[in-house]
């Protein structure tokens, strides 16, 4: 598994997660090492929300007006995640164009593909977000292309 983060201004390094590592544990360690925030259970934890509001100026915090009328989050919220709606498919197309015999070969190909993603591509992907958000609202939180 790999982890990454993007914004309109740049990207993190591509991080390879070893098999068996629990993401909630990694996240807790990361947050504890970065300003002492804790991650109790989910992204909606008060401490996590406070940390993200402080450190991420464009963060949309949990609030009932962001939920559907029935109080549930959009079931297709990955459609609103730039990594899910764009980046992973770019990486897959480039890194998996040929079969890999080893995990190390796949990792190298993923890193190469990741490093080839330009700031212009990131800006275009992020700039597409309002259009996707509108499509999600029109689909009432359901599936959309």
List the helices and strands and how they pair.
Blueprint: E1 2-3, E2 6-7, E3 10-11, E4 15-16, H1 23-33, H2 46-55, H3 82-95, H4 103-116, H5 119-127, H6 129-138
Antiparallel strand pairs: 1-4, 2-3
Q: Specify the CATH class.
A: Alpha Beta
Indicate the CATH architecture.
2-Layer Sandwich
The string of secondary-structure elements, in order, is EEEEHHHHHH
> Which class do the helix and strand fractions yield?
mainly alpha
> CATH homologous superfamily?
Ribonuclease H-like superfamily/Ribonuclease H
Total domains, how many? 1
The largest sheet is: 2 strands, antiparallel
**Percentage beta strand:** 5-15%
Please bin the fraction of helical residues: 40-55%
């Amino acid at each position: 598994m790999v982890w990454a983060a993007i914004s309109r201004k740049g990207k993190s390094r591509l991080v390879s997660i070893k098999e068996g590592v629990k993401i909630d544990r990694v996240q807790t360690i990361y947050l504890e090492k970065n300003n002492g925030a804790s991650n109790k259970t989910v992204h909606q934890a008060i401490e996590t929300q406070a940390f993200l509001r402080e450190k991420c100026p464009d963060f949309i915090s949990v609030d009932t007006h962001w939920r559907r009328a029935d109080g549930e989050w959009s079931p297709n919220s990955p459609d609103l995640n730039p990594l899910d709606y764009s980046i992973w498919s770019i990486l897959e197309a480039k890194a998996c164009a040929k079969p890999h015999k080893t995990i190390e070969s796949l990792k190298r190909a993923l890193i190469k593909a990741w490093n080839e993603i330009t700031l212009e591509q990131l800006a275009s992907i992020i700039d597409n977000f309002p259009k996707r958000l509108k499509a999600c609202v029109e689909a009432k939180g359901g599936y959309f292309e």
